[in-house]
Every structure is written in structure tokens, then in C-alpha cells.
């Protein structure tokens, strides 16, 4: 594949996530959190497996598009989990989900390091199966396992209650009671009074999606919805703009440090980056599937750097609040983005990329947590997903900005990322406070 082909492949997943984020929120609010999660996880797993054995480029693109569409619904998990947990512990438990993301960031390159360097080839006619195909299959397993586990779990009790399904809500509470007490005996709830059964109109999917969206942005929560969407757009634009750029920066710094052994008196990172020739005179048609060992190691280091923030936030969120950690994460990552302009070595690049990943990723995760806290049950799924949709738009824009300016004006991505993160941090201060004292 050429660089253009690789860009389309990466963009296909982003485009799938962009379209899926919006739709899964409506499905979660109309059909149920568990229902939406099972469907999206199965879709992600199945199309990932199909893509792993794809022998035709357009088929691979389509599968990555559909896989992205499916995995974008994973944000519904915040609503699903949050509606099972007592308000006293909700923020802490939702923040612990960042640790699972961090574990995945660390585990993924470890698995890749074991699988991708293998040299086996399975050929049968036009069919070819190599190590990267096996790696993609392995990456599909978590989604399928999660779908299986969700089949064995109940629907969200708050969603069932909001829909007036009292009997199903009691069955869900019995499940939780049995889980906690190892028995159904002495179950204390015999009936539910509020709310009354909701009479929903039978709308087509598109009409229902439209009315659900309009309902959110015309409700008393419209200001919060607008602010959270702007923050998601700014933070996610900055995150993907730089995180997809860091491996390229590492590669260019490695080229510079091996090509020029003596000091070159470079004043900033952009001068070093601009020296790299991105377009070779002759295109090598041979598929170069060798990956430098340092790539795996650097990604693992970046993942390990996220562990401190993933541990600190859940331990102190009840004392300091979500807003405090959001402001710190966005302003801190904005500062680290600005400092990129002054780096002159691959080591400095690795340190700053680790700081940026640790702070910006926890900030984006906390935005889902605060959305669960700020929106009521009937709007929660849609609000979380619309925010995610704006984030995916930002991810696409981040890719475009980097592609256009990385060689000649690399200061532009740095300024955009830094500015967006600082603005996001300031906008967080306009959101209402969360916590037990604000819940009636």
C-alpha cells in the first residue's frame, strides 16, 4: 500500500466511528443499553474477523468501516455501568474504566510484538494468510467475549424504569440482589410506583433518531449538551492529531540522529521534521512488512506512562471532583503539546508524547463520565453518543491538519492542538458541578 492507501484505511475506521457514534446513542435510549452494546460488539468482532482474511483492498476498507461503526457504540458502556452504581460510588467506578483502556494500550503492542514478527505464510490459490492476519483475528476476540458476557447480564434498571417496565425492573433488581447476596431470599422490593408507564409513539428509525436529537437540544439540558460537544470536538481533535503523529515524529528523529551524528544546532522540532524527505524519487513496489523493534517498545512505554493518572483519578475523584481533573488534564496536555515545538531529540519526543497521552486520554474518558452524571436517564445515551460523534469529527479533522502541514508548517498542528485543549479546559469550568450533593 502507498501512503494514500494507508490514509484511506485509517480514515475508513474513523468514518465508521463517526457515523456509528450518533446512531448507537439513539438505539441505546430507545431499545436499551444492553441491546445496543451486544449489537455493536458483535458487529465489531465479526467484521474484524472478515477483514483479517480479506484478500481484496476494497473489501478490507469496507470491513474496517463497519468495524469502526460497531466499536463506536462502546461509549454506551458508560451509561450502562453508571445506571447500576449508587451515586455515592458512580464517579469513582466510571473513572476506573480508564485503567482498562490503559491496560489495552499496554497489552496491544505486547501481543503485536509476539505475533507480527512471525514469518509463517499460508497460501492456497489467491488466498494468503500471514502474521498480521492472525493479529487482527486476536484483536476481534475482546468484542465477541464482551457480547457473550452482556447476553448473560440484565438490562439497565434505570432504563427499564424510565420506560415504565416495572416487572422487568424488579427482575433486574433481583438479579443484582442475588449477585450481591448469593441468594434471592428476603428480596425487599415488591412493587415500584414511579414513574408511570410511558406511552411512546411508533416512529420510523429515522424519525425517532431525529426527534431524539431535537429533544435533547431543545430540553433544559441543551446548554450542557452544546458545551460537552464542543469540548469533545476540541479534545479529540487534539488527541488524534498528535497521537497519530508521534510514531512519524519518532521515525523522523531516528532518521535524523542516525544520519547526522554531529550537532546540527537545530533550534526546534519543525526544522528537523522538515529535513525528512517524505516523497522518495522511486517508489519501492515491494511490501516492506518489517517494523522496527523500538516502535513496539515506545508504544508500551507510552501506555505505562498512563498508569499513574489512571490510578490517581479514581482514588481522589470523590474529594476533588470530575471538573478539577478535567481542567488539569486538558491544560496539562495543552502545555505538553506547546512544548513539542522546542524538542530536539527522540528522547524528548518520547517523554512529551507519554505526558500528552496520559493527560489527554484520561480527559477524554472523564468527559464520558461527566456526561453520565449531568444528563438524566432519558437523554443520557444520546448525549454521550452525540458528544462522541463530535469527537470523531474532530479526529478526522486532526488527520487532515497533520497531513497538510506536517512537512512545511508543523507549527500549525501544534498551535491548533494546544489552543483546542486550553479552550476545552476553560469550557469545563462552565459545566455544573457533579456529586452527591447535586443529586436530588
UniProtKB/TrEMBL annotation:
Molecular function terms from GO: transmembrane transporter activity
GO cellular component, one term: membrane
Compartments where found: Membrane
UniProt superkingdom: Eukaryota
Residues in the signal sequence: none
Pfam families: MFS_1 (PF07690), Sugar_tr (PF00083)
Domain (Major facilitator superfamily (MFS) profile) ranges: 1-436
Topology of the protein relative to the lipid bilayer: Multi-pass membrane protein
Coiled-coil stretches: none
Keywords: Membrane, Transmembrane, Transmembrane helix, Transport
Residue ranges crossing the lipid bilayer per the database entry: 12-28, 35-53, 59-81, 93-116, 131-151, 223-246, 295-317, 324-344, 350-371, 383-406, 412-431
Protein family per UniProt: Belongs to the major facilitator superfamily.
Protein name per Swiss-Prot or TrEMBL: Major facilitator superfamily (MFS) profile domain-containing protein
Amino acid at each position: 500500500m502507498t501512503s494514500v492507501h494507508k490514509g484511506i484505511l485509517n480514515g475508513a475506521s474513523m468514518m465508521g466511528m463517526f457515523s456509528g457514534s450518533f446512531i448507537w446513542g439513539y438505539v441505546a435510549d430507545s431499545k436499551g443499553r444492553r441491546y445496543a452494546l451486544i449489537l455493536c460488539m458483535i458487529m465489531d468482532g465479526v467484521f474484524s474477523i472478515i477483514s483479517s482474511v480479506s484478500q481484496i483492498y476494497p473489501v478490507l476498507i469496507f470491513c474496517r468501516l463497519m468495524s469502526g461503526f460497531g466499536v463506536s457504540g462502546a461509549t454506551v458502556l458508560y451509561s450502562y455501568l453508571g445506571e447500576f452504581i449508587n451515586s455515592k460510588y458512580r464517579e469513582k467506578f466510571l473513572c476506573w474504566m480508564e485503567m482498562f483502556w490503559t491496560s489495552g494500550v499496554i497489552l496491544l503492542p505486547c501481543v503485536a510484538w509476539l505475533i507480527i514478527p512471525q514469518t509463517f505464510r499460508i497460501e492456497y490459490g489467491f488466498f494468503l494468510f500471514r502474521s498480521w492476519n492472525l493479529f487482527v483475528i486476536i484483536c476481534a476476540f475482546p468484542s465477541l467475549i464482551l457480547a457473550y458476557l452482556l447476553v448473560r447480564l440484565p438490562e439497565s434498571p434505570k432504563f427499564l424504569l424510565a420506560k415504565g417496565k416495572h416487572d422487568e425492573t424488579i427482575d433486574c433488581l433481583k438479579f443484582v440482589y442475588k449477585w450481591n447476596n448469593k441468594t434471592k431470599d428476603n428480596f425487599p422490593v415488591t412493587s415500584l410506583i414511579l414513574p408511570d408507564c410511558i406511552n411512546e409513539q411508533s416512529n420510523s428509525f429515522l424519525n425517532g433518531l431525529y426527534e431524539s436529537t431535537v429533544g435533547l437540544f431543545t430540553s433544559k439540558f441543551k446548554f450542557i449538551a452544546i458545551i460537552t460537544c464542543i469540548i469533545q470536538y476540541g479534545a479529540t481533535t487534539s488527541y488524534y492529531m498528535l497521537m497519530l503523529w508521534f510514531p512519524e515524529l519518532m521515525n523522523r528523529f531516528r532518521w535524523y540522529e542516525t544520519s547526522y551524528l554531529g550537532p546540527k544546532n537545530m533550534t526546534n522540532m519543525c526544522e528537523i521534521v522538515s529535513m525528512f524527505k517524505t516523497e522518495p524519487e522511486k517508489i519501492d513496489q515491494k511490501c516492506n512488512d518489517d517494523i522496527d523493534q523500538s516502535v513496539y517498545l515506545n508504544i508500551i512505554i507510552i501506555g505505562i506512562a498512563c498508569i499513574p493518572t489512571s490510578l490517581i483519578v479514581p482514588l481522589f475523584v470523590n474529594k476533588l471532583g470530575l471538573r478539577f481533573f478535567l481542567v488539569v488534564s486538558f491544560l496539562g496536555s495543552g502545555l505538553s503539546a506547546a512544548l513539542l515545538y522546542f524538542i530536539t531529540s527522540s528522547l524528548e519526543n518520547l517523554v512529551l508524547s507519554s505526558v500528552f497521552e496520559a493527560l489527554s486520554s484520561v480527559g477524554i474518558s472523564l468527559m464520558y463520565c461527566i456526561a453520565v452524571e449531568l444528563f438524566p436517564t432519558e437523554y443520557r445515551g444520546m448525549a454521550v453518543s452525540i458528544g462522541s460523534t463530535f469527537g470523531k469529527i474532530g479526529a478526522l479533522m486532526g488527520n487532515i491538519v497533520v497531513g497538510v502541514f506536517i512537512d512545511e508548517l508543523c507549527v500549525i498542528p501544534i498551535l491548533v492542538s494546544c489552543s483546542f485543549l486550553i479552550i476545552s479546559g476553560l469550557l469545563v469550568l462552565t459545566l455544573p458541578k457533579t456529586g452527591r450533593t447535586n443529586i436530588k
